[in-house]
Amino acid sequence: MGRTWGLRGRKGNLFNGGVTSPFFVRWPGITPVGGTDALSVISSTDLLPTVAAAAGIDVFALPDVGPLMDGQNVLGVLQGEPLPGPQRTKPMFWRQPSRNSWSDESEDGWPARVMRQGDWTLTVNRNEDYRELHDLTRDRGQQHDRSGDPEHRELLEQMSRDLRAWEDSLPELWECEQAIRSGAPPPPPRPPPLPPTGPSPPSCP
User: Fold this and answer.
1) Mean pLDDT across the chain, nearest whole number?
2) Which residues contact 91 (CB under 8 A, 6 or more apart)?
3) Which pLDDT belongs to residue 104?
4) 108 pLDDT above the threshold of 70
5) pLDDT: is 176 or 53 the higher one?
6) Nearest 5 degrees, angle CA 67-CA 170-CA 82?
7) Is the predicted pLDDT of residue 131 greater than 60, yes or no?
8) Which of 59, 80, 143, 200 is found 20 to 30 A from 125 (Cα to Cα)?
9) Handedness of CA 45, 102, 159, 120 (dihedral sign)
Protein backbone atom coordinates (compact mmCIF):
# COMPACT_ATOMS: atom_id res chain seq x y z
CA MET A 1 0.00 0.00 0.00
CA GLY A 2 1.65 3.21 -1.16
CA ARG A 3 5.39 3.68 -1.62
CA THR A 4 8.12 3.14 0.93
CA TRP A 5 10.91 4.65 -1.19
CA GLY A 6 13.43 1.86 -0.75
CA LEU A 7 12.45 0.86 2.79
CA ARG A 8 11.64 -2.80 3.37
CA GLY A 9 8.09 -3.69 4.36
CA ARG A 10 4.72 -2.01 4.02
CA LYS A 11 1.81 -0.72 6.08
CA GLY A 12 0.96 -3.14 8.88
CA ASN A 13 4.47 -4.62 8.77
CA LEU A 14 7.28 -4.18 11.30
CA PHE A 15 10.14 -3.49 8.90
CA ASN A 16 11.11 0.15 8.46
CA GLY A 17 8.72 0.59 5.55
CA GLY A 18 5.83 -0.21 7.89
CA VAL A 19 6.82 1.72 11.03
CA THR A 20 8.32 4.86 9.50
CA SER A 21 5.78 7.69 9.24
CA PRO A 22 5.87 11.44 8.62
CA PHE A 23 5.28 13.65 11.64
CA PHE A 24 4.00 17.20 11.23
CA VAL A 25 4.33 19.84 13.94
CA ARG A 26 2.91 23.35 14.14
CA TRP A 27 3.96 25.25 17.24
CA PRO A 28 4.17 28.99 16.52
CA GLY A 29 7.20 30.62 18.03
CA ILE A 30 8.79 27.27 18.97
CA THR A 31 9.02 24.94 15.97
CA PRO A 32 10.94 26.41 12.99
CA VAL A 33 8.58 27.33 10.16
CA GLY A 34 9.05 25.32 6.96
CA GLY A 35 11.79 23.17 8.45
CA THR A 36 12.41 19.55 7.54
CA ASP A 37 14.09 17.00 9.80
CA ALA A 38 15.10 13.71 8.20
CA LEU A 39 17.54 12.72 10.95
CA SER A 40 15.50 12.44 14.15
CA VAL A 41 14.33 9.05 15.36
CA ILE A 42 11.27 9.43 17.57
CA SER A 43 8.28 7.31 18.54
CA SER A 44 4.71 7.81 19.71
CA THR A 45 5.91 6.69 23.15
CA ASP A 46 7.93 9.92 23.29
CA LEU A 47 4.82 12.12 23.11
CA LEU A 48 3.74 11.88 26.77
CA PRO A 49 7.11 12.83 28.33
CA THR A 50 7.60 15.51 25.65
CA VAL A 51 4.21 17.19 26.10
CA ALA A 52 4.68 17.01 29.88
CA ALA A 53 8.11 18.65 29.55
CA ALA A 54 6.56 21.43 27.46
CA ALA A 55 4.18 22.01 30.38
CA GLY A 56 7.08 22.11 32.83
CA ILE A 57 6.59 18.59 34.21
CA ASP A 58 9.43 16.09 34.40
CA VAL A 59 7.62 12.75 34.36
CA PHE A 60 10.87 10.91 34.99
CA ALA A 61 11.12 12.59 38.39
CA LEU A 62 7.80 11.02 39.43
CA PRO A 63 8.63 7.74 41.21
CA ASP A 64 5.36 6.03 40.23
CA VAL A 65 5.52 7.13 36.60
CA GLY A 66 9.08 7.72 35.44
CA PRO A 67 10.30 4.08 35.60
CA LEU A 68 7.34 3.00 33.45
CA MET A 69 8.03 5.37 30.56
CA ASP A 70 9.05 3.61 27.34
CA GLY A 71 9.70 6.91 25.58
CA GLN A 72 11.92 9.90 26.23
CA ASN A 73 11.62 13.68 26.20
CA VAL A 74 12.23 14.87 22.62
CA LEU A 75 11.26 18.51 23.18
CA GLY A 76 14.50 19.55 21.51
CA VAL A 77 13.35 17.95 18.24
CA LEU A 78 10.23 20.14 18.23
CA GLN A 79 12.50 23.14 18.78
CA GLY A 80 14.58 22.31 15.72
CA GLU A 81 17.35 20.21 17.27
CA PRO A 82 17.66 16.85 15.43
CA LEU A 83 17.93 13.62 17.42
CA PRO A 84 19.67 10.94 15.29
CA GLY A 85 19.26 7.31 16.29
CA PRO A 86 22.61 6.95 18.14
CA GLN A 87 21.70 9.89 20.37
CA ARG A 88 18.51 8.30 21.70
CA THR A 89 18.79 7.26 25.33
CA LYS A 90 16.03 4.64 25.04
CA PRO A 91 15.49 1.89 22.48
CA MET A 92 12.24 1.47 20.58
CA PHE A 93 10.16 -1.70 20.41
CA TRP A 94 7.36 -3.06 18.25
CA ARG A 95 5.41 -6.29 18.25
CA GLN A 96 2.67 -7.77 16.09
CA PRO A 97 -0.16 -9.42 18.07
CA SER A 98 -0.53 -13.06 17.09
CA ARG A 99 -4.15 -12.65 16.06
CA ASN A 100 -3.13 -10.19 13.33
CA SER A 101 -1.89 -13.02 11.13
CA TRP A 102 -3.05 -11.14 8.03
CA SER A 103 0.00 -8.89 8.31
CA ASP A 104 2.56 -11.67 8.73
CA GLU A 105 4.77 -12.55 5.80
CA SER A 106 4.75 -16.26 6.66
CA GLU A 107 2.96 -18.75 8.85
CA ASP A 108 5.55 -18.54 11.63
CA GLY A 109 4.85 -14.84 12.12
CA TRP A 110 7.54 -12.86 10.34
CA PRO A 111 8.30 -10.29 11.45
CA ALA A 112 6.68 -10.53 14.89
CA ARG A 113 8.91 -8.32 17.08
CA VAL A 114 11.43 -5.57 16.42
CA MET A 115 13.83 -3.57 18.54
CA ARG A 116 15.77 -0.52 17.43
CA GLN A 117 18.83 0.54 19.41
CA GLY A 118 20.74 3.44 17.95
CA ASP A 119 20.94 2.71 14.23
CA TRP A 120 20.66 -1.07 14.65
CA THR A 121 17.46 -3.09 14.34
CA LEU A 122 16.80 -6.62 15.55
CA THR A 123 13.89 -8.45 13.92
CA VAL A 124 12.60 -11.82 15.15
CA ASN A 125 9.80 -14.21 14.24
CA ARG A 126 7.15 -15.41 16.63
CA ASN A 127 9.02 -18.55 17.67
CA GLU A 128 12.28 -16.61 18.11
CA ASP A 129 14.11 -19.20 16.04
CA TYR A 130 14.96 -16.74 13.25
CA ARG A 131 16.57 -13.34 13.71
CA GLU A 132 17.92 -10.58 11.50
CA LEU A 133 20.26 -7.77 12.55
CA HIS A 134 20.59 -4.67 10.39
CA ASP A 135 22.79 -1.58 10.52
CA LEU A 136 20.57 1.22 9.20
CA THR A 137 23.53 3.54 8.75
CA ARG A 138 24.77 1.44 5.84
CA ASP A 139 21.69 -0.63 5.08
CA ARG A 140 18.66 1.63 5.11
CA GLY A 141 16.61 -0.92 3.18
CA GLN A 142 17.37 -3.75 5.66
CA GLN A 143 18.62 -6.06 2.92
CA HIS A 144 21.87 -7.29 4.49
CA ASP A 145 21.49 -9.43 7.61
CA ARG A 146 24.46 -9.10 9.99
CA SER A 147 23.25 -11.60 12.61
CA GLY A 148 25.77 -14.18 11.44
CA ASP A 149 28.78 -11.88 11.76
CA PRO A 150 31.01 -12.96 14.67
CA GLU A 151 31.89 -9.34 15.48
CA HIS A 152 28.20 -8.58 16.10
CA ARG A 153 27.37 -11.68 18.15
CA GLU A 154 27.47 -9.84 21.49
CA LEU A 155 25.22 -7.06 20.16
CA LEU A 156 22.79 -9.63 18.76
CA GLU A 157 22.44 -11.46 22.07
CA GLN A 158 22.21 -8.24 24.12
CA MET A 159 19.41 -6.87 21.93
CA SER A 160 17.64 -10.25 22.00
CA ARG A 161 17.67 -10.21 25.81
CA ASP A 162 16.38 -6.64 25.97
CA LEU A 163 13.63 -7.34 23.44
CA ARG A 164 12.48 -10.38 25.40
CA ALA A 165 12.57 -8.44 28.69
CA TRP A 166 10.46 -5.68 27.19
CA GLU A 167 7.81 -8.09 25.95
CA ASP A 168 7.74 -9.92 29.29
CA SER A 169 6.97 -6.60 30.98
CA LEU A 170 3.78 -6.05 28.95
CA PRO A 171 0.32 -7.00 30.23
CA GLU A 172 -1.46 -9.75 28.33
CA LEU A 173 -3.76 -8.57 25.53
CA TRP A 174 -6.76 -10.28 27.13
CA GLU A 175 -6.13 -8.33 30.36
CA CYS A 176 -6.34 -5.03 28.51
CA GLU A 177 -9.45 -6.08 26.56
CA GLN A 178 -11.16 -7.25 29.74
CA ALA A 179 -10.43 -3.94 31.46
CA ILE A 180 -11.80 -1.99 28.49
CA ARG A 181 -15.03 -4.01 28.38
CA SER A 182 -15.63 -3.80 32.13
CA GLY A 183 -14.57 -0.20 32.59
CA ALA A 184 -12.11 -1.32 35.25
CA PRO A 185 -8.70 0.31 35.72
CA PRO A 186 -5.99 -0.96 33.37
CA PRO A 187 -3.96 -3.96 34.54
CA PRO A 188 -0.98 -3.10 36.74
CA PRO A 189 2.28 -2.86 34.82
CA ARG A 190 4.87 -5.55 35.15
CA PRO A 191 8.43 -4.60 36.11
CA PRO A 192 9.97 -2.37 33.43
CA PRO A 193 12.55 -3.85 31.04
CA LEU A 194 16.22 -3.49 31.71
CA PRO A 195 17.93 -0.60 29.92
CA PRO A 196 20.49 -1.36 27.21
CA THR A 197 23.73 -2.67 28.67
CA GLY A 198 25.78 0.07 27.06
CA PRO A 199 25.73 3.04 24.68
CA SER A 200 24.52 2.65 21.14
CA PRO A 201 27.13 0.63 19.23
CA PRO A 202 29.04 2.24 16.39
CA SER A 203 28.17 1.40 12.81
CA CYS A 204 30.09 -1.47 11.31
CA PRO A 205 32.98 -0.52 9.06
Assistant:
1) 85
2) 115, 116, 117, 162, 196
3) 45
4) no
5) 53
6) 55
7) yes
8) 200
9) negative
- Determine the Cα–Cα distance for residues 134 and 162; give it in Å rounded to an integer: 16
Spatial contact of 200 and 117, defined as CB atoms under 8 Å apart: yes
Virtual torsion, Cα 124, 121, 47, 190, nearest 10 deg: 40
* Residue 157: per-residue pLDDT: 97
d(CA 144, CA 179): 42
Report the alpha-carbon distance of residue 8 to residue 114 in Å, rounded: 13
> Going by C-beta distance under 8 Å and a sequence separation of 6 or more, which residues neighbour residue 18?
4, 9, 10, 11, 12
- Tell me the residue type at 193: P
Query: Nearest to residue 201, comparing CAs of 141, 160, 140, 152?
Result: 152
If we measure between CA atoms, which residue out of 52, 51, 50 comes closest to residue 74? 50
Listed in order, strand segments (DSSP E) in 55-139 are 92-95, 113-117, 120-124, 131-135
For the beta carbon of residue 128, count every other beta carbon within 10 angstroms.
14
Tell me the three state secondary structure of residue 131. strand
Kindly report the number of other CB atoms within 10 A of residue 130's CB atom: 16
Average pLDDT for 76-88: 94
Question: Which amino acid, 143?
Answer: Q
Average of per-residue pLDDT across 118-136: 93
- Where are the alpha helices (H) located in the chain, listed in sequence order? 16-19, 47-54, 75-78, 153-168, 173-182
